[in-house]
Amino acid sequence: MRRRRLTAIVAAFVVLVALLLFSLGTFNPPPSTTGTASTTSASFAVDASAVIASAAAQAPAGYAQGSSRQLNPNETGLESGGYAVFSTQAGSVANMTILVFDTPRSAQTYTASVVSNAKALLGYSDVSSSLASYQRYGVCYGFGQTDPYGNGAVATGVCSKGNVYIQVHVVSPTSLSAAEGEMSSLVGAAYQSIN
Q: What is the pLDDT of residues 66-118, one digit of tens each?
């Protein structure tokens, strides 16, 4: 029963992530930047798949990269996109999405749209404090939820660094604090991979 509920949570969040990624083209950007942010004008000449490969090498202990694929959402200024699944033997599962835009402004507009829509979701806690060290690079927001039946938790971090959008979603079989910590570490691995 516990495994079935955890599987249901994973499935629900995979659908959420897919909806956020593939339907954001229809969202209007918010009138102003949402979330804690300081702007950065840095633009990085990177490819999404290279960022993911580098992040995998810097992932927290116990995490191994599984499947990955190229993404081609219909977004203005998008240069490359990639998605990868990471997992641990302890049962945590994470997915990382990297989108590289032509300018920091395009990435920040996209990130602000995702944050605005994430804030509209019901039942989630703001866990942005776990991403505080990354907010100097641009928009950064985190949200999470504990399974009410005690079968783990989920945490999602959405950030930008210059012209790069980062999204990490973690499902932990233990607690929200564990999911937050793992999500923050994976976001950090992505940040270190963008130079």
A: 999 999 878 889 999 999 999 999 999 999 999 999 999 999 999 999 999 99
CA–chain centroid gap for 90, Å, is 21
Give the angle subtended at the CA of 39 by the CAs of 110 and 168, to the nearest 5°. Answer: 50
- Domain ranges across the chain: 2-25+35-192
**CA–CA separation, 71 and 73 (whole Å):** 6
- pLDDT band, residue 157 (cuts 50/70/90): very high
Residue 36 vs residues 33, 39, 111, 140: alpha-carbon distances, Å: 8, 10, 12, 6
Between CA 97 and CA 111 the distance in angstroms is 12
Residues 24/110, Cβ–Cβ less than 8 Å: yes
CA atoms of 7 and 44, how far apart (whole Å)? 37
Using the structure block, give the residue that is written with the tokens 């990354």.
134
What are the CA-CA distances from residue 35 to residues 100, 113, 126, 147 (Å)? Answer: 20, 11, 10, 25
Identify the CATH homologous superfamily for domain 2-25+35-192: TM1622-like (3.40.1000.20)
CA geometry: angle at 159 spanning 155 and 161, to 5°? 150
Q: Are 55 and 183 in contact (CB under 8 A)?
A: no
Name 68's bridge partners. Answer: 84
